[in-house]
Amino acid sequence: MLSPLTAVSPVDGRYQSKTAKLGEYFSEYALIRYRVRVEIEYFIALCEIPLPQLGGFDRSRFGALRDIYRNLSTDDAQAVKEIERTTNHDVKAVEYFIKKKFAALGIDARYGEFVHFGLTSQDINNTSVPLSLKEGIADVYLPLLDEVYGVIRGFEDEWKDIPMLAHTHGQPASPTRLGKEFGVFAARLAEQRRQLLECAYPAKFGGATGNMNAHHVAYPNVDWKTFGDRFVEKTLGLKHSWPTTQIEHYDNLAALFDCLARINTILIDLSRDIWTYISMEYFRQRVVAGEVGSSAMPHKVNPIDFENAEGNLGVANAVYRHLAEKLPISRMQRDLTDSTVLRNVGVPIAHSVIALESLKKGLGKLILNEGKIAADLENNWAVVAEAIQTILRREGYPNPYETLKALTRTGEGVSRETIAKFIDGLEVRESVKEELRAITPSTYTGL
Q1: How many CA atoms are closer than 13 Å to the CA of 229, on its beta-carbon side?
Q2: pLDDT digits (tens, 9 = 90+) for 358-397
Q3: Is the entire prediction scored with pTM above 0.70?
Q4: Closest to 359 measured CA to CA, from 418, 311, 391, 405
Q5: Which listed residue, of 39, 102, 287, 440, carries a Cα 20 to 30 Å from 28's Cα?
Q6: What does the alpha-carbon distance between residue 145 and residue 184 come to, in Å, rounded to a whole number?
Q7: Cβ atoms within 10 A of the Cβ of 314, count?
Q8: Could you give the number of structural domains in the chain?
Q9: CA distance 34 to 36
Q10: Integer Cα distance of 417 and 172 in angstroms
C-alpha cells in the first residue's frame, strides 16, 4: 500500500499532506473522472443536436448521466482499470465502463453506441487534461499564490517607511526602503498573475486526424466544426484548437507552463533575497517550539523554509520547461511521446504548491531587526556621495564626481564626520551646504 513512507516521489510521500488536494485534479483517479465527464457531456451534446438516432433519448435522464462522473468513486475508477487490463487501452476502457453504466441505468444499448462516437482517444485526453489543469490551478494553486502575494503586499505597506541600505553587486548602494523592495516582488507577481489568467486552456476535438472525418461521413449535413466549437468552449469552458492533427499542438499549453515557470523564478529571487537578508540579520525568525536548527549546533535557527521553497521551485521549473519544450513537438500527425509526458502535468504544480506553503510559513516567521538595518545605514555614509555630487553638478561645481570619488575610495571608510568636514570645506553658498547637511543615509531614499 502506498504511504508517505513507501512512495517513491516526495510529492506523494514526505509532502503528501501539502499536495493531497491536487489528487482531485491530477491523479489517475482524477484523469479517469475527467475522461468520463467529457464522454458523458459529449453524449449529451449529441442528443441536443439532436442526431436522428438520439432524438428519442429522454432528456430528463441527463442528470442521471451526469451523476456517473459526479459520483464517480475510487471503486468505479478501479473498475475502469480492470477493464483496461483486457483492452490495454485506457480510453477504450472508459468507453466500455460508461456503456456498462448505461446498461445498469436501463438505457437501451443502441444509445450506448453513441458513447465515443466518431472520436479518437486524444479528443478525450486533450480535453480532460486542460480541464484538469484549468480547475486545479483555479481551485488550489491560485488561492495559495494569492495568500503569499497578500503577505508580500502587507509587508510593502507595513515597512514602507523603513529606510534600508541597498546592495548592488553585493556592495553598499544608494539607500532604499524595505517596503518598496517587497513592492517590487508584489508588482512582478501581480503582472505574471495577470498574464497567467490570460493564458488559454486549449483543447483538441476533431477525430482521428483532426478533420472530423468520421463525423462528416456519417452525418454530412451537420456543421461539426460549429458543434466542436460549442462543445469545447461552451460546455467545457476551454479554447477549441482548430485545425489540428490527431493531437492538440500544445503551443498555448506551453505558454501556460512558461508563465508558471516565470512566477516560480520570481519566487526563487524572493527566497534568495530574504535568505540573504536573514544572513545579514535584517530579519530574525520566530522560534518554533521543539524545532531543531542543527543536529550539532544548538544555537542555529536556519532559513529552511526559504531553502525548501527555492529547491522545490527549481524542480518545478525543470519539469515546466520540459513540458513547454517537448509537448509542441510531434512527428507528423501523431506520436505517443506526449502521452506519458502529460501524465506529469500535476508534478510541477505539486512542487510549486509545496514551495508556496514553505514561503507562506517562512514569511510568517520573519521579525524585522530594525536596529541592524539602521546600524548598516549609519556605517555606510559613503552612499550619500551620489546625492552630494549630483547637487554639486547642479551648482556648476568643478569635477564633482571625481572629487567625491577621491573622498570615498581611500579605503579608510567614510563616516558622518568625514562627510560633514567635506561639506564644510566646499566653496559653495551656505544654503547649498545646509541642503547637503540634511542628506543622510536614512533620508536619501528617493521616491
Answers
A1: 6
A2: 999 999 999 999 999 999 999 999 999 999 999 999 999 9
A3: yes
A4: 311
A5: 102
A6: 16
A7: 14
A8: 3
A9: 5
A10: 19
Contact 120, 207 (CB under 8 A): yes
Strands 239-241 and 202-204: parallel
- Name the CA radius of gyration of the chain, rounded: 31
Q: Are residues 264 and 402 in the same domain?
A: no
Q: How would you class 168 by CB atoms within 10 Å of its CB: exposed for 0-12, middle for 13-18, buried for 19 or more?
A: exposed
Q: And the C-alpha cell for 277? A: 537578508
pLDDT digits (tens, 9 = 90+) for 198-253: 999 999 999 999 999 999 999 999 999 999 999 999 999 999 999 998 999 999 99
Give the distance, in angstroms, between the CA of residue 212 and the centroid of all CA atoms in the same chain.
35
Count of H helices and E strands in the chain? 21, 6
Please report whether residue 92 resides in a domain.
yes
- Residue type, position 197, single letter: L
225, part of any domain? no
For residue 109, the Cα-to-chain-centroid distance in whole angstroms is 45
Q: Taking CA 119 as the corner, what is the angle to CA 115 and CA 120, rounded to the nearest 5 degrees?
A: 125
Same domain, 104 and 131: no
Note whether residue 52 is domain-resident: yes
Rounded to whole angstroms, how far apart are CA atoms 126 and 338? 10
Which of 360, 364, 365 is CA-nearest to residue 144? 360
End-to-end CA distance of the chain: 59
